[in-house]
Amino acid sequence: MRERQTHRDRLRAQEFDAFVAGAGGRLLHTATLLTAEPAAGVRAERLLRAALARTYAEWDRLRGEDPYDRTRQELAVRFARQAWRHRRPLGGVLDRLAPLERLVLVLRLYEEVGEDQTAALLGLPADRVRAVCDRSIAVMRSAGRGRGGAAAGPRGPATGPGTGPRGSDTGPRGPAAGSAFASGVTP
Asked: Exposed, middle or buried: residue 9 (CB in 10 Å: 0-12, 13-18, 19+)?
């Protein structure tokens, strides 16, 4: 009996290690965008570690649920809790945004989470998510123009095909919307 439990624990650890090896880099980048740190810093790593620990604790109960989606959800929830407690400007590009704006922008454009799914995750109406996302994009565009950045088209900075975060230049808001992060609008 004990042998079987040890084998199950080892298998669980191997599956989780494989998940982290495959998705850890992207999740760390998401955490970095959320915390607005200039590079993968202490807060982003701490946020990701806590989210991964929660995912690992619930690994056996995922039952077909995508562990990436679960970890991303945990990142968003943990970030939201921390952001409402204290806000410290760190100088990253996304630091111009309020925590809710940053959270919505990262989920919608970088992570390509649908509007309805983002609304459900944050407990907001879909039209509020849309408004926050549009306002965030406007703030980022004005910040880009203010520092002499590249000209932005109607949906964001111009980028080439296949430069989006998932290798595609189309996303939930149309061509190049998700490419804003891939083209230099990162912390």
From this structure: exposed
